[in-house]
Design a protein that fits this description.
The protein is 81% helix and 0% strand. The protein contains 22 helices and no strands.
Length: 489
């Protein structure tokens, strides 16, 4: 029998080709966006960051947990195509309705979002998220069928076209005297790249039968609805701070400096915060690749007699890996900061370690969340995410007017830490998995202690700092390897 851990690692590596490599390639657009050539002023980059915060909201809303429901019901029904057909058709109907509504009311929506002078942003966003949401189910089908290579090819093709168009439009066509045009070009490049997915997945759409099995769809929606609520609450935790940061800044400073100046100040705060968040993206990139492989893997292992042993081992490796990402970025921040070449953004570097730790906690929470998906108790995921979203909104509303984007970073840290703890406690009560808390504590304490020690020593940037910092990273890798290596008989 093949080793399930090796199988998960292999699939994560392939999905990582599309997710990690793709995200890293997109990550390489950050120096372009944050350069003085494209967005000299952080406020202009803040517009892009806020728009993509809305994209994240709409993507969760428009897929409404149907991907996970598809994986669940695929194991329970013999007719796999029937499950896929109803999943895709339900998502398609919701998305067409959404697109029509946004096209009809794009101007008032643009004004509410403080983009009244650029209603075209809303139209482009609506089309992008509709295409991406409709493509999610055929891509989920590839994951369920373990066709990781085709999945990777499609994702990389879309990403490659997006990057190519960004480079062409921003370096060749763009006039830097009109920053708003750069925002339009970025959205247009995304739109064309998104069209690649349904184009390469056309067979699934041609085979679609426009006949709903209402009994099946009702059961799937009943299963997915708590997940959709949890996903929506999760995305509030993930991105609402950018939206609140702008709108609360405008509300706080309009009377003092005027509405237009307050909007620019809010967008500047968003730009600096979002650029700094990009430096915390390495943990998030790893999470994305891992999640693509892990979710179907965990469901496939749910009937194995050694499932708990497998889940515990996976968690050990996972915790070691995410804290390695944390050390890799924080201890080399004087190098990573040059991915943001415009020094106007560098004041936000102080929040990068906070955001990295927040994303580590998020990753552990996501890894734990399999307990309520496997047991069918998805309502707990909704409860945890909803409470987290409530705290995110309340704390940001209180502290953003006082501390600006620094409040966003600390609120993210506190909420993700709380969700991680809550998920563990509830999981041990309702679907106990005997995680090794000693290893978790060891890896986290050692990683944070290494970072704190080197910050306290404060070696000046240069070769000495680089060598010493990375020797500590190697030492940490050695610790994890020693703890996780197979014991000989």
């Amino acid at each position: 029998m093949s080793n399930p851990i090796k199988k998960l690692a292999g699939q994560t590596a392939i999905y990582g080709l599309s997710s990690i490599v793709g995200r890293l390639l997109n990550y390489l657009l950050v120096p372009l966006y944050t350069s003085e050539y494209v967005f000299e002023n952080p406020s202009d980059y803040g517009v892009v960051a806020e728009l993509y915060a809305y994209v994240a909201f709409f993507m969760v809303l428009l897929t409404f947990g149907m991907e996970t429901a598809y994986f669940k019901f695929l194991n329970d029904w013999e007719d796999k195509q029937h499950v896929f057909n109803n999943s895709l058709l339900s998502v398609l109907l919701v998305n067409v309705s959404f697109l029509v509504i946004l096209l009809l009311f794009h101007q008032p929506l643009a004004e509410r979002m403080l983009f009244g002078d650029h209603p075209e942003y809303i139209i482009l966003l609506a089309v992008i998220v509709t295409i991406d949401a409709v493509s999610a189910l055929p891509l989920a089908k590839l994951r369920a069928e373990e066709r990781a290579k085709k999945f990777a090819i499609i994702q990389l093709s879309s990403i490659g076209i997006n990057i190519g168009l960004n480079l062409f439009l921003l370096l060749v066509v763009f006039d830097r005297e009109n920053p708003a045009r750069a925002v339009q070009y970025i959205l247009i490049a995304n739109l064309i790249a998104s069209l690649v997915k349904p184009t390469l997945l056309y067979k699934d759409f041609l085979q679609l039968q426009f006949k709903l099995d209402f009994t099946l769809v009702k059961a799937m929606v009943k299963y997915s609805f708590p997940l959709a609520l949890a996903g929506f609450a999760f995305i509030i935790n993930e991105t609402i701070d950018r939206i609140l940061l702008k709108h609360l800044t405008v509300h706080t400073y309009t009377e003092e400096i005027g509405r237009e100046a307050a909007i620019r100040l809010g967008e500047r705060q968003v730009g600096i915060y979002s650029a700094s968040y990009k430096l915390a993206m390495l943990v998030t990139i790893f999470l994305q690749a891992y999640r693509y492989a892990a979710e179907p893997f965990f469901f496939s292992q749910s009937k194995s007699k050694d499932k708990n042993k497998t889940y515990v081992k996976v968690m050990n490796y996972f915790v070691g890996a995410v804290f390695l990402c944390f050390l890799g970025v924080t201890l080399n921040l004087d190098i990573f900061k040059y991915f943001i070449p415009n020094s106007n953004f560098w004041e936000g570097l102080r929040i990068v370690p906070i955001l990295l730790l927040a994303n580590v906690f998020l990753g552990i929470y996501i890894n734990q969340s399999i307990w309520y998906k496997l047991s069918g108790q998805t309502r707990f995921g909704a409860y945890i995410a909803a409470v987290g979203a409530l705290f995110t909104i309340i704390l940001n509303v209180i502290f953003i007017p006082i501390f600006g984007y620094i409040a966003c970073a600390w609120v993210t840290f506190l909420v993700y830490a709380g969700q991680m703890i809550a998920s563990y406690l509830l999981g041990q009560k309702h679907y106990p998995i005997p995680y090794n808390l000693r290893k978790f504590g060891l890896y986290s304490i050692v990683a944070i202690a290494f970072y704190g020690l080197l910050e306290w020593i404060n070696i000046q940037p240069g070769w000495t700092q680089f060598i010493v910092h990375n020797l500590f990273i190697i030492l940490y890798v050695g610790l994890v390897w020693f703890m996780e290596k197979p014991k000989k008989a």
